[in-house]
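Q: Can I see a sequence and its folded structure?
A: Here is a first one.
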Amino acid sequence: MTAELEIIDRLMTEHQTNLIVKDADKSMGGFGVLLKLQEIQSVCKQTSINELINKKKQLCDALSKIQNHLDNHHFLEENALRPMVGELLMKALILEHSEIRNQIEQLILKINDCMPEDINEAELLAKKATLQEHFSNLCLTLEQHANGENQILRMLRKNYQRVGQLV
C-alpha cells in the first residue's frame, strides 16, 4: 500500500511541479510542459513569418524534447498505474497519451511545412494561423488530460489511504 501511495504522490507531483520552465532541457512536470508549449506558441505569434522559418529547427527541437519528457512520464504512468486502475481505464489513458503524441508530431510536421521558397506570403500567414491553432489545441488537450489524471490519482490516493486505515 505504501508503494502505491508513493507512486500516486510522485505522479501528482510531476503534474504540479516546475511551474516556471526556462527551457525545454529543464525537468518539466505536466504544467511545466504546458507552460513551455505556451512559451513556444507565444514565440510563433510574436515572430514574423521569415523569422519563424529561421526558428523552425529550434521550435521542432523544443517540441521533440517536450515529447521525450512526456514519453518518459507516460511510460511511468502506464506501467505503474496498470495494476491499480485495470485494463479498461488503462486503455483509455494510453489512447489519450497516443493522441497527445500524435498532436505533437503533427505540430512538428506543420512547422517543417513552412517553406518560403514554395509558397507566397498569404499562404505563409495562413500556415502561421494554423500553427497557432494547433498549439492552442495541444495545450488544451494536455491541460484536460492532466486534470483528468489528477482526478483519478486523487481517487486512488483516497482509496489506498482508506484501505490502509482498515488494515
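Q: Show me another, different protein.
A: A second, unrelated one:
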Amino acid sequence: MKLKITSPMAAKIRADLRKAIALPGVDERLAIVYARFASEVTQTVVVAADYAMLPDNAYVAGPDAANFDVRWLMQMAQGADRRNCGLLLTHLHEHKGRPWFSPADLWTVREVLYSLYRASPRFPQGALLFSSDAAVALIASAGGFVAVRDVSIVP
C-alpha cells in the first residue's frame, strides 16, 4: 500500500499542526486528511485530496496530548463519505526522521478509527503521522491495518 500527498499540502498541514493551541490540557493539534483510493479496483494507492484542522470545539478533556470528541469525528466521516473520501486522523511528532505512533495513538487507531473502516470500507480510513521531514500512515483493511512506512510526498 502507498499513500501520496502533494508537497504543498504536506507543508501546509505541518505548518497548521505546529500552530499553538490555547486550550487547557491540549498539547498537540489534530487534522483530518480526506483521502481516496487512486483505483477503486486495486485499492493499493491512497491519494490525499484535502484536509481540515480540528476546530477547538472538537477537543475534549482527557489523559492524552490531544483528546477529541468521537461524535465530531463520526460527523466528519459522514461528510467525507458524501465527498467519496475516507478520513485519516493526522498529527505531528516534532522530530526528524521517520515517526511512529505512540501507544495512545495505536489505541485510537484500533478502537476508534477501525470503526470508520467497518462503516465505510470502500474508502481509505486510518491515521497519518508527520515528523519534520517524513510521514507514515496506518490504513485500515479487512485484516486490520496496513503500515505505510514511507508516505510519498510528491510535487
